[in-house]
Design goal:
By secondary structure, the chain is mainly alpha-helical. Helix content is about 60%, strand content about 5%. The chain has 15 helices and 5 strands. It has helices at about 15-40, 45-50, 50-70, 75-80, 90-100, 110-150, 155-160, 165-175, 180-215, 225-230, 235-255, 260-280, 280-300, 305-310, 360-370, and strands spanning about 80-85, 230-235, 350, 355-360, 385. The strands form 2 sheets. A 3-stranded antiparallel β-sheet has the order 4-3-5. Strands 1-2 form a two-stranded antiparallel ribbon. A hairpin with a 5-residue loop joins strand 3 (about 350) and strand 4. It is elongated, with a radius of gyration of 32 Å. About 15% of the residues are buried.
Length: about 400
């Protein structure tokens, strides 16, 4: 049967595998949205959003490690009653492992396969997310450079508006490019060039394996499972019932390993009990909390607002400050000084083509004679001089 819609047999259907694979991404989107809403009233939560990749990777590391250790399945696979099994395991080996001295029934997964599963489930997605963010920044920088010119040639408005450093110090600072900055720029350029090809390759392999799995041409749903030699299958009823006893035996062994005085053992036992309780309710509690939050948010939002609300696009970034011409008049360190007369500005007026402020008499005389801005040397006219009535 092509799709195995009835759910019979040990082989999961394509829809079960797809749902299990998409669950972490959906969970991350829901958590990010929920924290963003809560951050409107609790500003300290913005720090969590600033390190979104790290916090989510740490959360999934704990959940995936606990799930693989206790159920031999990932966090999302255990919710769908799936288990991971080694692709090539002899029956005799299974019998030997099932009769181990500790009384715990082991599955086909080895320790190496569990560790590598965590790497494929947590570490690699984390690095991919970081590379994707670096690529987006590099692409935005290239787009902005194509529109406004390279960033190193733009005018640094901090020197003019704050007046803390002189033109000579600014020039010397620009010439002192550190090795770290050059290395970061090189890495960003390499990522911006190579990441599209790497992303296209991984997406192509993922699509190929999913198509072959749908057509029942392979038993591996993804290239990661194939590389690890692991197949995902449905858990039997006996395995689901034995999971709780297996977890209790593992935890009792961990309590027996506690060492130290009685008070230290009591503290360690309390911490283990809290950790076990948190992990036991992490799977259902986390997803249920996010689902309830989204349900309440949808419930209190009117249908008319959802249907008639226009799409709000983010405002475009402001254009960069104009470039200071090499042959132009240097800017004084004090922003209240006119660059032409080197005196405190009287009747301050701005040249609209560049944005710099001068005395009205000075700039009117200069523009009338040279038809340009004295700082940027951009073409200007008298009609492009505007009086400022609130000079700060």
């Amino acid at each position: 049967m092509l799709f195995q819609v009835g759910g019979q047999g040990a082989r999961p259907t394509f829809f079960e595998m797809a749902a299990a694979q998409q669950l972490p991404a959906s969970l991350r989107a829901a958590l990010t949205y929920s924290i963003g809403v809560l951050a409107l009233r609790r500003p300290f939560l913005h720090k969590v959003l600033d390190y979104e990749d790290e916090f989510f990777a740490l959360l999934m590391l704990v959940l995936e490690t606990h799930s693989l250790r206790t159920t031999d399945a990932s966090f999302s696979e255990s919710l769908y009653g799936l288990r991971r099994r080694a692709a090539k395991i002899k029956t005799k080996q299974i019998d030997i492992r099932s009769k181990s001295s500790d009384g715990i029934q082991h599955s086909g997964l080895e320790r190496r396969q569990r560790v590598l599963s965590v790497v494929f489930l947590v570490v690699l997605p984390y690095f991919k997310s970081k590379l994707h963010s670096i690529y987006n920044k590099e692409r935005e920088a290239r787009l902005q450079a194509s529109l406004w010119g390279p960033g190193d040639e733009r005018f640094e408005d901090v020197d003019y508006f704050e007046g803390e450093t002189s033109t000579a110090s600014r020039t010397s600072t620009e010439t002192e490019a550190t090795i770290r900055t050059q290395l970061v720029k090189s890495i960003q350029k390499i990522v911006g060039t190579c990441y599209p090809w790497v992303h296209a390759t991984t997406e192509g392999l993922t699509f190929t394996y999913q198509l072959l799995y749908l057509l029942d041409a392979t038993g591996f749903y993804s290239v990661g499972l194939h590389a690890l030699g692991i197949k995902v299958c449905r858990a039997t009823g006996q395995e689901l019932m034995d999971t709780s006893s297996r977890i209790s035996k593992i935890r009792s062994r961990e309590r027996e390993r506690l060492h130290g005085p009685p008070w230290l053992k009591a503290v360690q036992g309390a911490l283990l009990k809290c950790t076990y309780t948190l992990l036991d309710y992490a799977q259902t509690g986390l997803i249920a909390a996010v689902f309830i939050f989204k349900m309440m948010e949808w419930w209190y939002q009117s249908a008319e607002e959802r249907m008639s609300a226009p799409t709000v696009y983010p405002p475009p970034p402001p254009p960069p400050p104009p470039k200071v011409a090499k042959d132009g008049i240097p800017l004084p360190p004090d922003r209240t000084i006119c660059p032409l007369c080197s005196q405190k500005r009287a009747n301050p007026s701005v040249v609209t083509v560049s944005g710099f402020v001068f005395c009205y008499a000075c700039i009117h005389k200069y523009v009338s004679q040279y038809k340009r801005c004295p700082v940027t040397l951009m073409q200007a006219d008298i009609d492009q001089i505007r009086r400022l009535f609130h000079d700060v």
